[in-house]
Amino acid sequence: MIDSRRGESHPREVKMIIKNREKVGNFHECRGFSMIELLVVMGVIGVLIAIIVPTYLEYKAKTHDFSALSDTNNLQKLANQVLLDGIEINFIHDPGDGRVIGDENDELGHYIPEIYTLSPLVSAKVEIYNYIVAGSQISSIWLWVYSQKGTNDSSGLNGKKTFQVYMDGLTGSSLNNF
To answer: How far is residue 78's CA from residue 87's CA, in Å, rounded to a whole number?
Structure first.
């Protein structure tokens, strides 16, 4: 190196440059990770993912089931209120009819106001009967509620875990499967 003030080279600076070149040369001799080490790390990550992903998906499905269960409880209370009001009704709501239950005419031609709006991804089949035939009253409620992304169950509607409720409007007894 040449000193700009004196125009001469300093031996100490030249030695430092040579030492730095030797260090740079040593870095080229480092090879990094071997292929086996990388494969072992990738294998460990793969095993962790294989354990975590199914657990996470099951957790999400159970969350959707709890949403369906909440809707089942709310529907049970509201449908029971329809029976207590003494309205003559013959109402059926199928899962393909949308999220809004009610807001349509029943099979007897009576207008049924909106009873309930289901949570997203929840479907329900609702049957409410309350009418008099040949002097005897028929009064019952059937509810089948499931989440479209809930846990799988071959015995449920559309292969999903289904919460079922049957209520006898005359005796007040009910059967639940949840």
So the answer is: 13
